[in-house]
Amino acid sequence: MDLFLQALINGILLGGFYALMGMGQNIIFGVMKIVNFCHGEMLMVGMYLTFLLYTFVGIDPYLALPLVALMMFGLGALIQHTLITPSLKTKSFTNLLFLTVGLGLLLSNGALVLFGSDYKSIRTSYSQTTLQLGLVSIALPKLISFCVLIVVTIVLFIFLKNTTTGKQIRAVSQNPVGAEVCGINVKRIYLLTYGLGIALAGMAGCLLTQFYSIFPTAGAGFGFRALIVVVVGGLGSIPGAFFAGILLGLLEQMSALFISPSYSDMIVFITFIVILVARQLIIMRRR
Amino acid sequence: MDIKKAVGVYHRNLLIAIGALLAVFIAIPMIVKTPYIINIFVLVFYISTMSMAWNILGGMTGQNSLGLAAYMGIGAYTVCLVVTKLNWNPWAVSILAMLVTAFIAGVIFFPCFILQGPYFTLVSIAFAESMRQFIINSEFFGRASGVGLPFGPDSFLQFRFTSKVPYYYAGLIMMIAVYAIMKKIDNTKIGYALKTIREDEDAAAAIGINPTKYKVIAVVISAMVAGFVGFFYASYIRYIDPDLMVQAKSTEFVLPAVVGGAAFVEGPLVGGLIMIPLSEFLRANYARVLPGINMIMYAIVLLVVIRFRPSGILGWYMESKFKKFIDEKILKKPSLDVLEQYELMNYGSRKEA
Question: Domain limits at B110?
Fold first, then answer.
């Protein structure tokens, strides 16, 4: 029973990261209809940024969070401005896809050149602290990360729902031409959404540094799971991404507990295929 | 007949150019004896072939698959397992490998054909990754440690050589054969149907092209080619493991096509011939100091090509003055309306006969 509870808690806490990644991917995919294949690499960049800030400047990883988010926003906006916006004109999905794939290659191999392939980690005074809650124990950093996630989700939800910019983002995601006719600066919104998406990935990376090793391909698994979260949670839905992320984390932990840890990846992928196909079937039935 | 003569000269010059290119490739192993250089060319051949296999699906049909390495892995595994466990002849098994990959692509993957656009890409990645995970977890497939082919004396029947030169020629023949098949498909009804689906799937369905049917054809052809390349790879390296099927490999197979020009049948060849030697050169000379430098170069070339020449190197060449120069001065290509008249003339004579 306590094993089950522990897996439940771990699943929820792990799912939080998938949710955070998924929200970033969701905004990008929802607004520009492009799959950001370098999302996992952006998480990795966020991790290395936190690592650099911690070792060279001495900033605590949690204090570095807004700083990392800001820097990642800048990076995202730069990429959007120099690479993606000009390529959007060609309307070639293949090109946009391989643009992000190429960016991913560039970032992960760039990290390999700059930092080498060895595993790095950040150890703060509280990173080994665990809280005992009845039968289960929770690592303090994981709990803090989860709280940050909830705050981010709520802020993001309110931002998209109530502010003018948020409304503009939603308008562009529904119909970019119509939005442009209404006087919305679509290019600016693209810049904003890509930056925001990348900033969320960077934040996930920053939070992850406390209990995850930092290495150039650290983000690969997270990147693909973010896509699963987008598809399962629904386009443009922040609460959807939140719950889909947690569900995914739970699925992974539960299949590791009940079936076998080595099969948990395979189960995630097969579930994803089934969901994709079932979703499309439902859409086709509705037409 | 003025027109006939002009076209005849053009065709002759074109044949000479192609023949000269072929002669260069045939002569390379006779002049260059370094196994390292030969190895690079073998890489060029099989990666370009894989890229062509992707191109029929991604470039021609517009379905961006990112899981082609899995089919190559399945082909390679079929060959290794059947040869080691049942002692069949590798050449016979290569046919079996193609059938197995065709079955997996056409039957097991079938429900995924209803997905479009980005969702198809996602499902291809998930499908490939779940196949890899299956192999890693299966005792029969040798888990993560992989399987090898038996060693022994050189023999053509076993497709086993110590020298790299026979693999060079086999790879060259494979690449040319696949290119010929792709060129043929490009000019037949299937090719036009595939290109129509790429431009607009709903419109294609409206004019009587069944998108699912043609997508299945494209995926099966691409998987069969990948399965055969798997056979070639397994025979060349003689040892395979599940790392062959990682997604990074699939990406590696796509890049030559995108850089060369995904809309052209020749795109993967051009991209492969430029990118792979460059990447291998960087890997050999600088990888010790800067690991991953060849992939960085790959990524930068890819980004620059997509940003500034979205139709690839070949698309660029098609519009350039250089092509005009070659066409007019070296190949003596007649103007387009002359070619058109020639076609009409031929059509007329064929009609009479």
Answer: 35-245
